[in-house]
UniProtKB/TrEMBL annotation:
Statement: the UniProt record of this protein carries the keyword Transport: yes
Protein name, entry field: Large-conductance mechanosensitive channel
SUPFAM superfamilies assigned to the protein according to its UniProt record, in alphabetical order: Gated mechanosensitive channel
Segments passing through the bilayer: 21-40, 83-101
Described purpose of this protein according to its UniProt entry: Channel that opens in response to stretch forces in the membrane lipid bilayer. May participate in the regulation of osmotic pressure changes within the cell.
Record's GO cellular component terms: plasma membrane
Gene from which this protein is expressed: mscL
Lineage, uppermost ranks: Bacteria, Pseudomonadati, Campylobacterota, Epsilonproteobacteria, Campylobacterales
Domain of life: Bacteria
Family (UniProt): Belongs to the MscL family.
Subunit record text: Homopentamer.
Amino acid sequence: MLEEFKKFLIKGNMVDMAVGFIFGAAFATLIKSLVANIIMPPVGMLLGRVDFSQLFIALDGENYENMKALEAASAPAIKYGTFFNDMISFLILGFVMFMMIKGYNKLKAPEEKAAPKTPAQEVLLSEIRDLLKK
């Protein structure tokens, strides 16, 4: 059973998938940072100096000055600003992955189609014809 598991892990597709998963996780972190630190600050500034990561609705009815005060009070909240940032990250990541896959598919060599197999009857008839020619 251990030998069978080794064969499964060594297969090319499994290794490719593992590398892709690690690369994807690192890439997602990069995109999240891009959205939070590069894209959203100018958008927030254009909308009146709004920091989207600080937008929330406290569910306990209290008014908290900022996210730190909310978290210090351990109050339940709907953090829709953080969700908005994550949604933008997801859309950018999805678009970038779509473009990468589209580019990969263009670069990938087209698979050669195998010649259709000649039916057995035709093979036999060809052999008979060749024998009659002799």
